[in-house]
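Why run this: before we spend reagent on co-expression, it is cheaper to look at a predicted model of the complex and decide which construct boundaries make sense. The entries below are exactly what would go into the expression plan.
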Amino acid sequence: MSTLLLLLLACRPDPGSPDYPDPSAVDSGDTGQEDDFYPGPDPWQEGEARLSLGLFYEGGASEALPVDDVTRHYYIYSATYSETVDVIDRVEGYESAVIVHGGGEWWGGGITWGQPEDLGAWSTLHLSLRSGSDSFATLSLHLTGGGTEAVVAATDYGYSADGAWHHLAVPLADFASGGADLSSVTGPFVLVGTAGTAGDELRVDNLYMSGD
Amino acid sequence: MTPSLLLLSLLAGCIDEPPRYLYGQDLDVLELVLWTRTVGVYPDTSILDDPNNPFVTGAYGELRWDLVSDGAWVPAFYAWGTHLASEPSGEAQFYTATALGEVYARRLAADEDLYFVRALAIAGHQVVLDEFPDSLTYDESGTIGYRLAPLAYQAILDLGGEPQGDWIVVPTEDGGSTIVPAS
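The model came back. Tokens follow.
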């Protein structure tokens, strides 16, 4: 039986190149599936300065600092939420992330960099959010630089849990004025929220930073 | 010996056991779970509702000092955090934040939680500066006091943070330094 399996495997033709998009591609939004790929509210243009953080974003960028699970991590704190994807309800790319509230007293998660990065060349953090649940009525965006964590409220940038997508543009200067040193960032993006009902959902998509 | 008597004697025996046992519960295996996003930082009192807190009934007493001296930082956080929520003081806030700082530095929590543990430690030490700037702690004799604000200030720096507020660093007569309010 084992011999037969090995023979069958040996006869298996070369599968060739995969026909699914490479999510790590950062030089172009063209993944070969234009019909399915959502360009987003502000599609990247060749030559435009855009930084992908490798999370909640699949489009093109001029630079990328992707999560590599070596020095750059994406953490969900204390299992306060779970995460899945939605390939239907999305803003950009092939899917949006769905944050599912764990039902606890809070929820939070985000990107942590072991080696500080200089984000001084970037001016705005972009993010799209959608929820129709009171569990996500208030949430905060955190950025840590130079050891200081600065916090802003998403509602100050147009977000509300009204069931519609909201496209936020947060000036990084607002984090700097909160004490974060943008030349030495270790926490470029953290989302934190309050108590809620288990199973309630928040969709997140189109996360990137832009230059001037 | 009846089971009841055996149980009683075992429980009584726990009194003489090493301090990191609480009524038969091995505190060394206690895990830090971030119950709320401001747990252990005054004026948050959510630690009193935390199901993972073994001291929720207040049974920490003098054990909280032993936990610090033994370097049992996770149970020390729960003991001092409970004390802080029950009887707010700069000393309780300082040791709660110190325990969190040690949990972070020694990676005694899950990797995914260390970012927030550090943030809580810094926030706790900042509260010492903001809310309890004149707090003291004492040596074993209980007669020699130490200002906690300079220690909290240094702890924030050690955690890679930046202390907030109007504090200035000044030299001391013994060649060291301390902090004083700028105005």
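Chain A has two helices and twelve strands. Residues 49-210 of chain A form a domain with the Jelly Rolls fold (CATH 2.60.120.430). Bring this page to Monday's planning discussion.
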